[in-house]
Amino acid sequence: MAKKKFVVGCFDDEKVLFPAVKKVRKAGYKIHDVYTPFPIHGLDQAMGLRDTSLHTAGFIYGITGTTTALTFMSWVFNKDWPLNIGGKPHFPLPAFIPITFELTVLFSAVGMVLTFCYLCQLAPFVKKHHFHARATDDLFVMVLECTSRTNEADAKAFLESVGAKEINVQEAEDGWWLGRYAKEQKLYSTPSENSLA
Amino acid sequence: MALLRYESQVREPLVTGAKTYHDVTEDIVRPIEAAPSRLWKIGFTISVLLLLFGVYSVYREVVYGIGEWNLNKTIGWGWDITNFVWWVGIGHAGTLISAILLLFRQGWRTGVNRAAEAMTIFAVMCAGQFPIFHMGRVWMAFFVLPYPNSRGPLWVNFNSPLLWDVFAISTYFTVSLLFWYAGLLPDLATVRDRAKVKWRKNLYGVLSFGWTGSTKHWQRHEALSLVLAGLSTPLVLSVHTIVSFDFATSVIPGWHTTIFPPYFVAGAIFSGFAMVQTLLIITRKVLNLNDYITMEHIEVMNKVIVLTGSIVGIAYITELFISWYGQNPYEMAAFKNRYDLSTPYAWSYWLMMSCNVIAPQFFWFRKLRRNIIFTFFMSIIVNVGMWFERFVIIVTSIYRDYLPSSWSTYYTPSVWEVGFYLGTFGLFFTCFFAFAKYFPVIAIAEIKHILKKNGESYKDNMGEEEKATVEHFTHEHAHH
User: Fold this and answer.
1) Of A98, B68, B147, B203, which residue is 20 to 30 A from A79 by alpha carbon distance?
2) Cβ within 8 Å of residue B460, ≥6 positions away
3) Are B375 and B284 in contact (CB under 8 A)?
C-alpha cells in the first residue's frame, strides 16, 4: 500500500450528492469512494458498484452447516457407536431436524460475519485514513483519486460546481494499518468551527 | 429498492422535534461522553451487589451440591428451570424487534432495536446459567458437547430435547451477539470520530474495527443485516419451540401437549416486550431520549403485548379444554391441580391468569396504552405473571406424581435458590447499565436513515409530495 493523492469534497445533503455522483462520473473522474454516515439506498448503483455476493456466501455456509450436522449425527448413530437408545431408530430424521437447523443458522451467520469483516477489512486494532471526521456524523464525503492525468484545480472547481461544501486535497494511505492514527490527524471538530481535518 | 415508499400523514412521526443528522448524533452520543450520573452509579452499585450475592449463592450450590436448593423427590426442576425459561423468553422480544420487524419493514423498530437486542443478549446470558449449574457437577458441563473423548468416544444423545437446547441456546446467543455487534460498528465509529480525548478515541477505534462508512461497506452491511434478520427470524421461533420440547416430549401429564411450541413462543414475546417496556421507559427518561423513543413506540409495543397476551390466554383455555376433551384421568388431574382452589398451588395459577390474561386487556384502551406510568406498572405485572406461568407449568405438574406416597410437601425455595435468581438480575442489570453508559443505546445510523421519511420536521413536507405526480415522486425518491 502506498500513499495516494485524493481530492475530497464534502456534501451536507444526500439530495445534492446523488446528481453530483452522476455528474462526476460522467466527467470522467475516478471516484475512490463515498463515505456516508448511514446507508444510502441506490448510491451503490449510482457509483456503478456491482451488487454484493455476500448472500450467496451465506447460503453456501448454511448448506455446509446442514450437511455437517446431518452427516455427523448419522455417522455417530450408525457407524461410530450404534447405541441402542430405547429401541429407537438409528436414523431418526425428525429428531435430527432441530440440531441440523441450528447448525445451518450458526454456520451461515458466523461465516457471513467473518466474510463481511474480511471483505471490508474490518478487525479490532485496524486503522484506516478518515478523510473527514464528520463522515460518520452528518457529512457525505466524496473522494476522487488523482491519476497522472488529473488536474487538481479542475477537480476542485468541478466538485464545487456540483455542490460540495468543503473541498480539499489529501495525501493519504490507501489501505489499512495497525497501531496509531497519524499524529497530524486532528480530533473531532464541531460543525460550527468548520475546520478541515 | 425499497425507497419508493409512501409515508402516510396519519402515521405519527418516529422522531419528534426538528432534528438534523448532527442533532441525532449529539443526542445519542452525549450520555456516553458525559460523566456517569449519580442515579447511574447507584443503579450500577446495586446491580453489582446483587450479582455478588448471586455468585455466593452459586458458590454454595457448587461446593455443597444441589441439596442447597429445596428441590425434592418429585420437584426436580423447581425455581431453577422456571428462571431459565423465563429469561430465555425475555430475550425473544429483542430478536423479534431486530429481525422480524426488519423483514416486515416496520420503521418504528429503529428507535428501540439496539437496546432490545442488548436485552436479548444479557437475558440469554442469565438464562444459560440455570441449566449449567443445575447439572450439579458444573465442572463436567462440557460433557454436553459432542467432542471426541476417551470414553469410547461416547457421544451425546442427539434424540434428546435437552441436547437440542444446548445447540439452540448457544446458537441463539452467538447469532444475536453477531447481529447486535455488526449493527454497532458504524455507531461505534461515530463515537470514535467525535472523541475529544485520546483514550476514548483509541477505545472506540479498537471497538469499531476501523469502520469508515464506505459505500461498498454499507452495501455489504445492509446485505449482512438483511440475511442475519432472515436467519434470526426462524431461529428465535426455534429456540422457544425447543425449550417447550423439553417439556412437551416428556410423558408428564400437563407437559405432554402439542400446543406448547406456539404457546411458548407467544408467551416469550409477551414477556419480552414487557421487559423492553420496563427498560426503555427508564432509559428514555434517564438519558433524555423522549424524541427517539416516543409515545408512538410505547403504544405500538403495548399493542403487541395485548395481542400476545391474548394468544397466551387462548392457549391456557385450550389446555383446559383439551384436558377435559381428552378424558385422560392423569391429564385431568394435572389441570385440576392447577385451577382447583382447594389445591396448594391454585393461587399461583390464578395469579398467572390475572397477570397474563386479564391485566393486558386494559391495553384495549388507547388512553391506557399511552400512559407511561400505567405501562410501566403493567410491564412489571406481565413479567411477574410470565414467571408464574413457568412456575405453574413446572411445579404444579410434578409436585404430585403417579405415586401418592411420594407426593411432596409444599415446595418453598431455599435462600440460595432465590439468591441465584437475584444474582441473574444483578448480572442482567450490571450488563445493561454498562451498555447504557458506554454504547449508543439507539441505532444512530438507522435513525438517520429514517429521519427524512419519518422525522417530524420532514413529515410536514409530505403534503407537497402528495400533490406531485407519480413520475415526479419516482424521479425524486428512486435514485436510479
Assistant:
1) A98
2) none
3) no
**Angle formed by the axes of helices B444-454 and B109-134, to 10°?**
150
What is the Cα–Cα distance from B198 to B11, expressed in whole angstroms? 43
The CA-based diameter of chain B, rounded to the nearest angstrom, is 81
Given a cut of 80, whether residue B235 has pLDDT beyond it is: yes
Cell of A27: 466527467
For chain A, give the longest Cα–Cα distance. 83
Cβ atoms within 10 Å, residue B330: 15
Report the C-alpha gap between B414 and A8 in whole angstroms. Answer: 67
CB proximity A88 to B under 8 Å: yes
A100 touches chain B (CB under 8 A): no
Element (DSSP H or E) covering residue A177? strand A176-178
Cell of A3: 500513499
Under a CB-based contact definition with an 8 Å cutoff, are residues B426 and B49 in contact?
Answer: yes
Scored b (16 or more CB within 10 A) or e, B228-244 reads: bbbbbbebbbbbbbbbb
Please state the ipTM of this predicted complex.
Answer: 0.90
The C-alpha torsion from A90 through A94 and A95 to A101, rounded to 10°, is 120
* Cα distance between residue A102 and residue A62, in whole Å: 10
| A4, A171 contact by CB (below 8 A) | yes
Give the CA angle between residues B143, B146, B149 to the nearest 5°: 70
Residue with cell 456491482: A50
Position B68 pLDDT exceeds 70: yes
Interface of A with B in 2-41 (CB under 8 A): 18, 33-41
Vertex A186 angle, CA A14 and B436, to 5°: 70
The domain spans of chain A are: 3-50+124-178, 54-120
List chain B residues with CB under 8 Å of A128.
210, 212
Report pLDDT digits (tens) over B141-155: 999 999 988 888 889
How do residues A46-105 score in pLDDT, each as one tens digit? 888 899 999 999 999 999 999 999 999 999 999 988 888 888 888 999 999 999 999 999
pLDDT tens track for B93-128: 888 888 888 888 888 888 888 999 999 999 999 999
Looking at beta carbons, which residues of chain A come within 8 Å of B210? 121-123, 126-128, 176
**Integer Cα distance of A156 and A179 in angstroms:** 32
What's the Rg (C-alpha) of chain B? 24
**A3-50+124-178, what's its fold?**
Alpha-Beta Plaits (3.30.70)
